[in-house]
UniProtKB/TrEMBL annotation:
Keywords: Coiled coil. The keyword Cell inner membrane does not apply. This is Recombinase family protein. Residues 352-407 form a coiled coil.
Length: 467
């Protein structure tokens, strides 16, 4: 037997739940002993830990590096614990054989047997074991998927992998500090605070994800819309079931979070807000929306007439004065029994569920419509007309649903106007706007009765409250 002086040892383990790498270490030890018995010299060890060879979507960097070294003529043999550590799919074995054939590498040694890739019998043996390994991998995958589905049906966590934020390693017990973060973030998001603002808060509080990275708006949205946080187990489109763990937030709040944060009309690229009442002011002469902008260094709300604005141009009011008046009116309204009754939590839950059910039905009908078109039951024109009508209806319902969920921004402050007054200046503008919008449809500004009068004439302002 020829002496090999540039041997590659390859080791891999699919799952290393403890992270200790013990399975790989045992493979390496046995491969070293095998190489020593042969009197060969190891040039390098290539290790892929916690990486499956069966899932070809996952790259195996050490394996790819070994192939490159073989192709470059830098390795003259390969030693591996078992052939299934090297490949789980026949197509990968053929690629390995091709690379070795071109490079003149014929020796593939395992702890349990040897293969001469330069002979027909040796290659056949390797291929047969490769087919067996692929079949075992398929069976293992099916068993794994069935076990995952069974766990989901019983409301159990999937187990393995990275623990979810808010839970301990068992994926059932709450992580006290992280669970508190989820509750506060959920409350602030329901109160209208933007994801960007919440990410900034988490960064300032030095709160990191379970991987130790800073939060991004996408990861925070995923966290706040994950049914796991309100005690629901989901699995690949199957009917959700009650989980075995206790919810971190109320399920009703979870549903509202999904409505707000997954609303298709929600803009994520808006510029920073500077005006409390942007979009809420109305001209008392023509009814057009007042435009917020600075004028000679002073923030104003004005009715404008231009190519983009169809107002009369006859109403203007200082933003600071109007905003101070509206804030005081909102705080007073929150202490009003009539407003408290109108905005009481749960008062619009029936309407919310009705809209959600209608949206679900419409989306199912959209799928049925697509199938009818695919089967030739309707032509393209009929499909397009019906689809557009349903899309417009879904868009209107989504907008109405978003409006209903926004009303809950004032829930924590009903009957507590004075308490809110103490907190108001510490709130960011996003939260302030959400609270104002939850109780106010718009505010109409009438013409000044005394031109040039200093201060705000309360008679000019007519709030339209939500009922």
């Amino acid at each position: 037997m020829a002496t090999r002086r540039s041997v590659a040892i390859y080791a891999r383990i699919s799952q290393d739940r403890g992270g200790e790498g013990l399975g790989v270490d045992r493979q390496l030890q046995d491969c070293r002993e095998k190489t020593a018995r042969l009197g060969w010299t190891v040039a390098d060890e290539y290790v892929d830990n916690d990486i499956s060879a069966y899932d070809r979507r996952k790259k195996r960097p050490a394996y790819e590096r070994m192939l490159a070294d073989i192709a470059a003529g830098e390795r003259d043999a390969v030693v591996v614990y078992h052939i299934d550590r090297l490949h789980r799919a026949p197509i990968e074995l053929e690629r390995f054989v091709d690379v070795c054939s071109i490079a003149g590498v014929k020796d593939l040694k395992t702890v349990s047997g040897d293969y001469d890739l330069g002979t027909g019998d040796g290659l056949l043996h390797a291929r047969l074991l490769g087919i067996v390994a692929a079949a075992e991998g398929d069976a293992k995958s099916r068993r794994g998927k069935r076990k995952m589905r069974e766990k989901a049906e019983n409301g159990q966590p999937h187990g393995g992998g990275m623990r979810p934020f808010g839970f301990e390693k068992d994926q059932i017990t709450h992580h006290p500090e992280e669970a508190a973060v989820i509750r506060e973030a959920a409350s602030r998001a329901l109160a209208g605070e933007s994801l960007t603002s919440l990410v900034r808060w988490l960064d300032e509080a030095d709160v990191r994800t379970v991987t130790g990275r800073p939060w991004a708006t996408t990861t925070l949205r995923q966290l706040l819309t994950n049914p796991r946080n309100w005690g629901v187990r989901t699995y690949k489109g199957a009917e959700p079931v009650k989980a075995v763990w206790e919810p971190i937030i109320d399920p009703a709040d979870g549903a509202r979070l999904r409505s707000v944060l997954l609303d298709p009309s929600r803009r994520t690229n808006r510029t920073a807000r500077r005006y409390l009442l942007s979009g809420l002011g109305r001209c008392g002469r023509c009814g057009e929306v007042l435009v917020s902008h600075p004028k000679r260094g002073v923030r104003k709300y004005e009715c404008r007439t231009s190519a983009n604005h169809k107002g009369c141009g006859k109403i203007s009011i200082t933003a600071e004065l109007l905003e101070e008046w509206v804030v005081e009116a909102v705080l007073h309204a929150l202490d009003s029994p009539a407003m408290a009754q109108s905005l009481a939590p749960g008062s619009d839950d029936t309407e919310t569920e009705r809209i959600r059910a209608e949206v679900t039905r419409l989306r199912q009908r959209q799928e049925e419509l697509a199938e009818m078109y695919a089967d030739g039951e309707i032509d393209r024109a009929g499909w397009s007309t019906a689809r557009n009508r349903m899309q417009n209806r879904v868009r209107d319902l989504d907008s109405a649903l978003a409006g209903l969920t926004r009303r809950h921004a004032a829930d924590p402050y009903l009957g507590k106007g004075e308490e809110l007054r103490q907190q108001w200046e510490q709130m960011n503008l996003d939260r302030q706007v959400a609270i104002v919008k939850s109780v106010l449809n718009h505010v109409t500004v009438l013409p000044a009765t005394v031109p040039g009068r200093h201060g705000l004439d309360p008679a000019r302002v007519q709030p339209d409250w939500r009922r």
